[in-house]
Structures are given as structure tokens and as C-alpha cells.
Design brief:
Layout: H1 2-36, E1 40-42, E2 44-46, E3 50-64, E4 67-71, E5 76-80, E6 90-91, E7 96-100, H2 103-130, H3 132-144, H4 160-168, H5 171-186, E8 189-191, E9 196-201, E10 208-209, E11 214-220, E12 224-231, H6 232-235, E13 243-248, E14 253-262, E15 272-279, E16 289-306, E17 315-320, E18 323-328, E19 330-335, E20 338-342, E21 349-351, E22 364-366
Length: about 375
């Protein structure tokens, strides 16, 4: 019996040794297989926080910031001023753009002045007797009246008795009637209020002008502005004086200006606000089409990341210690295909893969060197 057990024990020992050797080989093969499996690699974006700036898109046509319609206030035949009365003709401030025949009004004015001088001469003897203290003042005033010049300003009148004397003799009525005629006569000469150019004419020199008739459009050549619209969402970012950068595709050139003003009333048709940018350059012309941005600093630091990397729950995938993790962020605003977010530290590695993929918890490394 003892002899039978000994071979069995030996057999058991041999089987155990064989099992151990087989198990060791399997573990070695599995270990080698795991070592050969590749670790996931993804493109990453290194986060760099910067001072955020909202760029509000605008576009429109350039208009002169000083543009007036020349309208006749009197009637008469028209005559050209210092230059031909044509589109494209420029004038300096103070130049006569157009004259309107004033012959009849001039005759009437001179007639009224003559009557006024006669009236005052007739009153001087009474003034000398009854108001001797006023005589010297009014004698000097009478001598200052020149036929081809406007009546001088009246001397100061303090005494009520003397004032009543002048009123009773229709002195003030005659004086102010003449001043009204002088004002009307001045409207027969149309003077350039600023340096500019005639952009549109509605009559020709020699035509008859009538009261309230539009004669021409006159624009300044030095100052321009662009009218555009911005959305209700962008309105809160607006501030007078903000930098505006506009671009001309025709010239392939940028122009810099500033936000001049904006209308706080919403346009009912397109539910937007009107804004006006001031811009000046020798290469800008009225009617030119420009597009660009209003630059609105936010006084806040944040990161600019691709919009597609933001999850619906306002989270992004980041890579920390070779593990992909989800990180909540605060989206500030969107701009084209980018989104500006707050909540990511500098040098954080943002996984540049679709957030719809099940990546969280995965062991990975960055492809970027």
C-alpha cells in the first residue's frame, strides 16, 4: 500500500509543477500583450487666457458727416458764385456758391433806409430840446448810418419816457422792418458754411429759384461716418469712443475710426440699434461700402476656444495626468466658430475632439509636442 502511494504523490507533484509553468507562461504572454497595446493620442489645445474683447460686426456705406441741402428762401433768377454751379465743384468756407437776383429787394431796402434817416432827422430837434442828455448819443448814431451797409445796432435806451417818445413816433417799428429786409436780402447770396463739394444739383445757373425749392446737396470732404446696425445682444457692449476698424474689399485696406454715437431706440422692422462710426481718410469717398468691427474691451480675462468643443452642459474635455476629464466653464459670448470662456487655467490641455465621443476617464496622451 505504501509502495502504491509513493508513485501517486510523485504524479501529483509533477502535475502541480506543470500547472505552475503553464500559468507563468500565460501571464507573461498577457503582460507582453498589454505592453504592446497603443495608448490613445489626441490633438490638444494649450489654453492661454487673455484680455477679452468683444468684436461687434458692422457694415454699411460711407456718408459725409457734414451734409446739407441747399434750399432757396427767396425768389429770383440764379447766378453762379465764385465757381461754376455744377456737381463735383468744391468751395471753401465763406465762398459764394450761388446768387439770386436781389434787385427789387435792394431798391425796397434803400427806400426804407431813406425814410428811416428822414424820420430820425425829424426827431433830432425834439430830442435836443426835451432830452438833451440823449442828443449826443443819437447824433453819433445818425452819422454812423451808411447807405450800402446794414443799420448799426441801436444805442442803449434806459429812460422809459424817452423810449415812449420813440415808440409814439413809430421809430422801433421802422427800424425792425428794415432789419427784416436786410435779413431777407442776405438770403439772396448762398454762402458755403464749411469746406465742401456740390454732390447733386437740381437746377442750373440762370434758372428761376422759388422759396422752399431745393437747389443742391453740399457735402464736407474731410469728415465721414458709417451708419450700421447691431443686435440687441451686442447693444450692452457699446460705449462712445470705442475703436472701430473697417475694411474695404475694393482697396484691400483697413481704416481705423471710433464709435461716434448710437441710437438707444430699437428699430421696429429689424429689432436692432443704429450705430454711427466716425472715420477719416484721404482714400475714403462718400458712398463707399465698408465692413468691420467695433472693438469693445470687457476688462475680463478668458480663453478663446473652438465652439464645437463646448458641450451642451457647458463643459469641456481636458487632459490631466494622462486622464481625460470633464471641466465646467462659463461661456461669455460666441464669435463666428469660436466661443470665449471663463474658468480654464493657463496651460490647461483642451482635448481637440468631438465632445460627443465617450472620452471621459480614458487614459491618453497629447499628440502635440
Amino acid at each position: 500500500m505504501t509502495r502504491l502511494k509513493r508513485p501517486l504523490n510523485s504524479l501529483y507533484i509533477i502535475l502541480i509543477v506543470i500547472s505552475f509553468l503553464v500559468s507563468s507562461c500565460n501571464r507573461a504572454e498577457l503582460k507582453n500583450e498589454n505592453k504592446s497595446l497603443p495608448i490613445a493620442q489626441y490633438e490638444t489645445i494649450k489654453i492661454v487666457n487673455e484680455d477679452l474683447e468683444r468684436k461687434i460686426k458692422i457694415r454699411g456705406n460711407i456718408e459725409s458727416s457734414k451734409k446739407i441741402s441747399i434750399v432757396s428762401e427767396v425768389q429770383g433768377k440764379t447766378f453762379q458764385g465764385v465757381n461754376l454751379f455744377n456737381e463735383g465743384v468744391s468751395y471753401k468756407k465763406g465762398d459764394v456758391i450761388l446768387s439770386i437776383d436781389d434787385t427789387d429787394n435792394l431798391y425796397n431796402l434803400n427806400s426804407s433806409k431813406s425814410k428811416f434817416i428822414g424820420l430820425l432827422n425829424g426827431l433830432m430837434s425834439t430830442i435836443k430840446l426835451d432830452f438833451p442828455e440823449e442828443y449826443g448819443t443819437w447824433e453819433r448814431y445818425l452819422n454812423e448810418i451808411v447807405e450800402k451797409k446794414n443799420l448799426p445796432q441801436l444805442p442803449e435806451i434806459e429812460g422809459q419816457k424817452f423810449r415812449s417818445f420813440l415808440i409814439s413816433n413809430n421809430f422801433f417799428e421802422t427800424y425792425y422792418s428794415i432789419k427784416a429786409q436786410e435779413n431777407t436780402l442776405s438770403k439772396h447770396r448762398i454762402i458755403a458754411p464749411f469746406n465742401g463739394t456740390i454732390t447733386t444739383t437740381y437746377i442750373k445757373s440762370g434758372d428761376m429759384a422759388l422759396p422752399q425749392m431745393k437747389l443742391a446737396e453740399f457735402s464736407n470732404n474731410d469728415f465721414f461716418e458709417l451708419e450700421a446696425i447691431v443686435s440687441i445682444q451686442d447693444y450692452k457692449f457699446l460705449k462712445i469712443g470705442q475703436k472701430v476698424v473697417l475694411y474695404s474689399q475694393d482697396l484691400d485696406k483697413e481704416f481705423e475710426g471710433y464709435l461716434l454715437r448710437y441710437n438707444p431706440k430699437i428699430d421696429k422692422q429689424n429689432q436692432s440699434f443704429k450705430v454711427y462710426a466716425s472715420i477719416n481718410s484721404d482714400e475714403i469717398y462718400e458712398g463707399m461700402y465698408l465692413e468691420g468691427n467695433i472693438h469693445s474691451p470687457l476688462n475680463l480675462k478668458g480663453a478663446r476656444i473652438p465652439r464645437l468643443l463646448l458641450k451642451r452642459n457647458n463643459e469641456v474635455n481636458i487632459l490631466i495626468d494622462s486622464v481625460i476629464m470633464s471641466k465646467p466653464v462659463n461661456p461669455l459670448f460666441f464669435e463666428d466658430n469660436m466661443v470665449f470662456v471663463y474658468g480654464l487655467n493657463d496651460n490647461t490641455l483642451l482635448v481637440n475632439e468631438s465632445p460627443n465621443k465617450p472620452l471621459v476617464g480614458q487614459i491618453a496622451i497629447s499628440k502635440n509636442k
